[in-house]
Amino acid sequence: MIMTTTPAISISGLSKSFATDGLDFVALQNANLQISPGEFVTLVGASGCGKSTLLRIVAGLEQASAGDVAVDAQPIQGPGIDRAMVFQHYSLYPWLTVLENIKFCRQLRVHRDVSTSADVEAAAGRADALIQLMGLSHVANAYPNQLSGGMQQRVAIARALMARPKILLMDEPFGALDAQTREVMHDLILHVSLLEKTTLLFVTHDVEEAIYLAHRVVLMAPRPGRIEAIHPVPLPDPRDQEMKQSPEFLRLKKDILDGIRATSGMQTQREWLERLGEASGASY
Ligand SMILES: Nc1ncnc2c1ncn2[C@@H]1O[C@H](COP(=O)(O)OP(=O)(O)OP(=O)(O)O)[C@@H](O)[C@H]1O
């Protein structure tokens, strides 16, 4: 892909090893990826291929063993307000209401120091707009444990968007939701990302979700964790649920699923299934 602007995220020669039992385990090896401003990129791949590790390094929550990550051409130095992260488990503050959870980041020191009264007013307006957009106005004063999983995740997303991050990092954010709620969330996050030109890096196990949301799907592979292939998604914006039935969509889904199967290390060949049958027969 030819970049004409400064990448929103630039990942070069990125590696990460963990010391386990005195041995170095390579979770990520020489990853290279340039993401344009406003681009939506999803990461898929077999379990343990380093998707979350890559995301956590970009978030500044984990340190790289080698290589560089830059945001807007600036090397990252830990977490920053230019990047917000949403996890699979909603991680809301149970003692705060929905509205208080969403406004919480405004009360952090980093924001308070730069806030004028106009900033505070604008923040209240943004919190209201996010609450409306996410369909949360009827529960604005409720506590997280009074909400369904889908609603809690909408609060977590609204909270992440509150500081108007340039980059949103999402680690299986819809993994615990039912299929219908996921579809609603997909269209919602696409809508917001187009509106605010947010750059998205999104981890998922769901290949359909990965294609529907993304401009590019990055296929990762394990042992060692690495980027195996990058698939551009040949669908226009805005997305429409019907596109999931298009031949381009189905072809890409098959290619990516084949890629995951080929790199997962799991065996489905007849020979191994037969051996399993023989072994079971012998033991029982
Ligand atoms: N803190 C850690 N210490 C040791 N090993 C780790 C640590 N974090 C991750 N790993 C290992 O690094 C590899 C990559 O982990 P990671 O969570 O990034 O994979 P993933 O692709 O997100 O997996 P999954 O799809 O199962 O969530 C795994 O083998 C994991 O066990």
TrEMBL record:
Name listed for the protein in its UniProt record: ABC-type nitrate/sulfonate/bicarbonate transport system, ATPase component
Matching SMART domains: AAA
MF (Gene Ontology): ATP binding; ATP hydrolysis activity
Source organism: Methylomicrobium album BG8
Domain ABC transporter positions: 9-247
Keyword Transport among record annotations: yes
Stored InterPro entries: AAA+_ATPase, ABC_transporter-like_ATP-bd, ABC_transporter-like_CS, ABC_transporter_ATP-bind, P-loop_NTPase
PANTHER family, alphabetized: ALIPHATIC SULFONATES IMPORT ATP-BINDING PROTEIN SSUB (PTHR42788:SF13), TAURINE IMPORT ATP-BINDING PROTEIN-RELATED (PTHR42788)
Keywords noted in UniProt: ATP-binding, Nucleotide-binding, Transport
Recorded superkingdom: Bacteria
The family this protein is said to belong to: Belongs to the ABC transporter superfamily.
UniProt keyword Transmembrane helix, yes or no: no
